[in-house]
Amino acid sequence: MDKTILKKRVKLSGWSIAMTILTMAFLIGICVWQFHKTENEFFCWLLLGIIVVWSFCTLFYSPVYIVLTEDSINVETMMRVRRIPIDEIVSVKICEPTMSERRICGSGGYFGYFGWFSEPSIGKYFAYYGMSSQTFLIRLKSGRQYMLGCINSKEMAKALADRLTQHLKTKTL
Q: The whole model's pTM is what?
């Protein structure tokens, strides 16, 4: 097990919290309304099943913590950990998404921001963040990019950059 250097919580934006609450209330309201309105219980149970499965799937991607260890930076969700090895990272920089970002496939606020996004100045990237003002961009050797976000993201980005520099120095020795 890697030694943890820094662990930061992902804080959801007010928009994300509101979007999550309103979406869940709306979906549950439709479900309750359908149970009282229709005599076709199959449709109601199907709708409830879709809501439960959809909400469960968000637990695999919705970020909770960003953790920097000796050998990787990890995105912890409720159900899994996405590990990005330090060996694969080329650069890290503070970078907030702009209004021109386009969601390709993912969540634009429901339980946070996660999934594939594209932006003219950055290109395509996979996002794991709660607030756009708390993000940094990681570029990998493979060309993949990750937009990560957590509380005090500048500290996390600096710690990751320092760890990346240390790692490169030990590799060349």
A: 0.86
DSSP H or E run through 62: none
**How are strands ordered across the β-sheet holding 4-9?**
4-9, 63-69, 72-77, 81-85
Residue with tokens 């990998």: 140
CB atoms within 10 A of CB 77: 20
Percent of the chain with pLDDT over 90: 58
The H or E element spanning position 157 is: helix 153-172
CB 62 within 8 A of CB 77: yes
Report the C-alpha gap between 159 and 165 in whole angstroms: 10
pLDDT in tens, 81-127: 999 999 999 999 998 777 777 888 888 888 999 999 999 989 999 99
Alpha helices in 9-84 (DSSP H): 14-37, 41-58
